[in-house]
Amino acid sequence: MFYQFSYWLFKLKLSQPSEDTINYWIGTNSVHKLEYALTNGNYKTRQLAAEALEFVGQSSSIPVLLVAIDDKIHNVSIAALNTLERLESNEELIKSIIKKRFHWLKNLRDKEEKQKNKKVKKHNIYHWERASKKSFEIVKERLKRPIR
């Protein structure tokens, strides 16, 4: 009853399901609830839902997982990829997953290489010459003179 209530609160966007709630949905094979959590939850809920769909293992959730691959949060995307690999629906899907992983790996290596090759910028620090004591004294004397 509590888990049903938490699902309705989640649908009304008043709260996010906890890890226990998602584990309960795994136990009851509530695929539609997990798919809803994957599409509409915050990043932790989406990640937990993607990992949970791995255990439920129905091919009807593949379209939702394919959309989750392109999530902005990398942990959600990785969880969706892992789930799709374990579902193994067809050969083309596995090829696209492998291609996506290689693309990510290439991007990560490129970023690391850019950071490594990035030269440390040397900032030009200009030191202003300090007025000598003599010139300071001259200015003081001129200020003491009356204006003509």
Q: Can you walk me through this structure?
A:
It contains eight helices and no strands. By secondary structure, the protein is an all-alpha fold. It has one domain: Leucine-rich Repeat Variant, CATH 1.25.10. Helix 2 (19-27) packs parallel to helix 4. The protein is elongated and about 95 Å long. 22% of the residues are buried. The model has no long low-confidence stretch (mean pLDDT 79).
Secondary-structure blueprint:
Elements: H1 2-11, H2 19-27, H3 31-40, H4 43-56, H5 62-69, H6 74-87, H7 91-117, H8 133-144
Entry keywords:
148 residues; mainly alpha; Leucine-rich Repeat Variant; elongated; 8 helices
Major beta-sheet overview = none
Give the N-terminus to C-terminus distance in angstroms. 96 Å
Instruction: List low-confidence stretches.
Output: none
Number of helical segments with 4 or more residues: 8
Percent in strands:
under 5%
Supply the helix-strand structural class: mainly alpha
Specify the CATH class.
Answer: Mainly Alpha
Query: Care to count the β-strands?
Result: 0
Shape: elongated
Q: What would the average pLDDT be, to the nearest integer?
A: 79
User: What percentage of residues falls in helices of 4 or more residues?
Assistant: over 70%
Question: How is the CATH topology named?
Answer: Leucine-rich Repeat Variant
Second rung of CATH, namely the architecture? Alpha Horseshoe
Radius of gyration: 31 Å
Number of domains: 1
Order of helices and strands: HHHHHHHH
